[in-house]
Amino acid sequence: MSRVLVTGATGFVGRHVLDPLLRAGHEVHAVARRPADGDPRVTWHAADLLEGDPDVVGEIEPELLLHLAWYAEHGRFWSSPQNLNWVEASLRLLRAFAGAGGRRAVLAGTCAEYDWSTGVDAYDEASAPVRPVTLYGAAKHGLHTVAAAYAAQAGFELAWGRIFFLYGPGEAPERLVPAVARSLLAGEPAETTSGTQVRDFLHVSDVAAAFAALLDSDVRGPVNVGSGEPVRIADVVQLLGEVAGRPDLLRLGALPTREGEPERIVASVRRLREEVGWAPRIGLREGLQDTVARLRDR
Amino acid sequence: MSRVLVTGATGFVGRHVLDPLLRAGHEVHAVARRPADGDPRVTWHAADLLEGDPDVVGEIEPELLLHLAWYAEHGRFWSSPQNLNWVEASLRLLRAFAGAGGRRAVLAGTCAEYDWSTGVDAYDEASAPVRPVTLYGAAKHGLHTVAAAYAAQAGFELAWGRIFFLYGPGEAPERLVPAVARSLLAGEPAETTSGTQVRDFLHVSDVAAAFAALLDSDVRGPVNVGSGEPVRIADVVQLLGEVAGRPDLLRLGALPTREGEPERIVASVRRLREEVGWAPRIGLREGLQDTVARLRDR
Fold it and tell me: Which residues on chain A are in Cβ contact (under 8 Å) with B143?
């Protein structure tokens, strides 16, 4: 059992990570601007990481840090200058963590760090070229460069979970899965692109569980967090039609595909499976069923 | 003529850059914690870039930014956590610059961004692998990753001058050239390693002139700032012995070579020469003569 500090604990991934951390027996401290009600075993701390040095870290003295907080506003996060603020806040956080005697930190990276023009079958952490084209991907990758060198210098372990495509409860309503599901549940046509692009989808609970496992491992450096399963976006949409019982409302191809969309973005999950020893528990059909069921219940 | 803001203007490179900027006809504003006396044509602003948002940028509204400020304490800068503070300060500075309508920024990078284990003849900006092993190199490179993407997004030009090895007036006294020169001038033996490593040396006035030229060009991205001339460190020491008139006091090989010292670190200067259109004016012998003469006069 260790004392864990989680940032972004009210976010999309963060709200799913508290359970696995508690189940692993950790003393869980969560930082958020507006702490959530919920599991009484979690100790919440109200703090804005964007505002100056995070004194809260020195008060908690965590052994482990799981840093998930970032600017994540749908549609804006790719290019927002807020990405710079989060690089700054993350560096302050890491300095505070080292200063408080922290032992191991895991941070959230992104598949958008990789060079998406390569069209490789699967991105391997050690060999796939890294060349982010978005400000979000560049900010994450730049942070990783600095953070990894700082961890080595300051004497704490650092791992970097590169998240691929995720879906599930809590997802921004404008995004593909909830947008299609809500149309279908409302009995309205769901217009999408033809969806020929291949992606790597993982249910957000599994993403969170993977991060919890990575935190409890001694693996360092970048680790892809994905399913390793190539799936066409059209197949995700078809599955949504099936589990919602309204395949007739699907309108694949009604919207034009965005220029420059990469054909294929799939994770190599060798490190995650073999080194961290973690595998997904929620298949795509089951995960989409769960997502649709929760939207139906609301 | 443009309004230029220079940071680190009292530093090793910075104090040599004001002249070429003035000669190019610019309106020069300099930021430093402790402004220097000197050329009355330079407008000095007292500000600590490490402390919060740099309001001074909004007051000056510079078209051009030459950002040279960084932590540079001899022997400590390679591994100091201050490198993180400077990443943060630099990102704040760039946001302020973009917010004030800035058009073009040039920042100081380092040859320590390159993968020094490759042993290539000369590091080329486009093809040489980048893999910093020091915190200093990683901080600079991480900053470049974020800054380049931010500039593209925010709509200003950004160039990144990767400084190789520099020497000249104002150099920290513990470093090779002044340390050897001072011993010789004091009539004491100058103990050095055997100095078989090959490096790329450029006089600090030329480094500063190269940055001024880069600022006035429209070249973007990384540009090596070096001489392109491979020189053994032993040859630098021998030349110092000659120009100081005391080759008899040299003790090459008296000190052990540090473990893991790279054999060869030399810049490809194609971009600097052909794209920026700049070439060094001070040869190594002349530059060392100048350095020794100034130390003698003190």
Answer: 142, 146
Can you list the residues of chain A whose pLDDT is less than 50?
none
Closest Cβ opposite residue A146 in set B95, B139, B152: B139
B111: pLDDT confidence band, cut at 50, 70 and 90? very high
Q: How many CA atoms lie less than 13 Å away from B256 in the CB half-sphere?
A: 3
CB contact under 8 A, A150 and B95: no
The whole-model pTM stands at: 0.95
Average pLDDT over residues B15-21: 96
Rounded Cα–Cα distance for residues A128 and A32 (Å): 34
Domain B3-167+201-226+267-281, CATH among 3.40.50.2300, 3.90.1150.10, 3.90.870.10, 3.40.50.720: 3.40.50.720
| Rg from Cα positions in chain A | 19
Assess contact for A229 and A293: CB atoms under 8 A: no
Q: Hey, are the CB atoms on A145 and B148 less than 8 Å from each other?
A: no
Range A3-165+202-226+268-281 has CATH code 3.40.50.720: yes
The answer to whether the CB atoms of B95 and A84 lie below 8 A apart is yes
Domains of chain A, residue spans: 3-165+202-226+268-281
